[in-house]
Amino acid sequence: MRGTSSSDDGLGLLILIVIGILAGVIWFIIQHAAVIRTIGIALILVSLQLVRYSRKQRKKRKKVIELHRIQKREEETRAATIDQKRHEQWLKEYEAREKINNDIKNKIYLDRVVADKRKILIVDDQNGIRIFLYETFLNEGFNAFMAVDGRDALAVFKAESPDIVLLDLRMPKMNGIEFLTKIKEVNHSAVVFMMSAYGELADLHKGVELGASPMWFTKPFDTDELRKTVLLTLYPN
Fold it and tell me: What is the pTM for the complete model shown?
């Protein structure tokens, strides 16, 4: 009987403690109802702001992705247009190449080039290519000039006003694209043929946009084709 009485006393004490805790919690809630309500409202408002921010970020990401798609389509269209122009120009000149080939052999163009005092500027930081082209066009009757980089080429360009420029794209000090930008400001009528290595397609397209001929020459190129193109440009008839 004594053991049962002790258990009942312990259970009663536990119940009293629980009731006391619940009463304290209820009292706290009643006393601080306004604060709790304010905190709850604040949490709801913060949640709503986070939802709005998340939606805005998703919309922003969608706009950025769509903008990138549009830019990519425009770049592809521009590149295709440039390639098409280049192809059409090659086709247009195809029939004239045999005639030019024969005329070159017969030195018909030599007198015309000399008489017209045609000037050509070769811009390339590779000594072998630069000197070879210089001697080639010198033998064709041109007043030929050389430059090892865009900075030197710009000085020669302004001083001599060449009819034709053979321009390498990758050079020290001032590259081919920078050179094209500078001579565009001069607003000269010279025809610029770009010379490039593989893997420079983006630079070639940029060069065409800056005014260079859409007919470029990829190294190693056919020198005879280059000569024909230069002469056909100067004397299309």
Answer: 0.57
